[in-house]
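Problem 12. The chain below contains 307 residues. Write out its predicted structure in token notation.
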Amino acid sequence: MASPPTETVEVREYCKQQLQKRRKEQLIKKLHLTDQLSLRNPQHAAEFAQDIFETMRERETLYMVSPTYLEKQGSDIKDTSRAFLIEWVIDVQRKFRLLPETLFVAVQICDRYLSTVKCKKSDLHLIGVTSILISTKYEEIYPPEMSELISVSENKFKKAEVLAMEFKILLALDFDFTLPSIYRFLERFRKISILQNDDQAFYFAQYIAEICLLDTFLLRYRPSEIAAAALILSGGVTKNNRMIWNKDMEKITDMKLEQLFKVIEDVRDFAMEVNPKFLQTLKYKFSKPQYCEVANLPMKFSFQRPS
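Solution.
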């Protein structure tokens, strides 16, 4: 080790460098190994990844809606009406090759608005296309033009109608769309799990997570819980029943496996029993090579709650 310099300016610079070095060493010790390996990539924000995750966990409950909110809409709008709407939103996301996060944000906008404002069944399609418009503005670098979204809606709406609905949604939700989604949690869980480099397992978990978007019953669970359940079930299918939610995962996420048993069972049951007519778009989407053709994998989940 070089001897400390003697000049005042040099001493200050030396002390500054040593302090920065020590702080960095202390920081690295606190980071998960995966985050340590990502320190050289500034886009990963590895120094703050765990803090961001913990903040997401704190805030996710603020944006949850009641799983029975459709009852307040009356008999006009039912679960099947919503399921058809969400399937259409998924299809639009596929056609425009939008980011996965755009889909999850759009669905959350739909649910939050419908749980706040009483609507007519005839407005559902307009609410769906407007939710996509808002989420693409928020998430996409190059969002589709409004005219393109109107076109994919078979020109059922005029530009003025979409703008008016956008205004209503923005006011109803107080312009607040910075919310944790299932997909963001799924990305984090993948990064810190043994499935980090397994594309097939991740895409199968994403497939399960998008299936979950179709059901209001699962809105009773936090996005982080749905993401964890999807990853655990995916690991069981793609990794020969290997349990990927180990003690290390429990420590980092502060989510115990036994606390996830109920959500895992409900996600498993819905994925296996969902009406096939709502899965046509998802099956087509996830049967593509870019998604490792995970839609062709059998929905044979072997997860059993320990006795």
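Discussion. Residues 136 and 144 are 7 Å apart (CA to CA). Students who got a different answer should revisit the alignment rule from Section 12.3.
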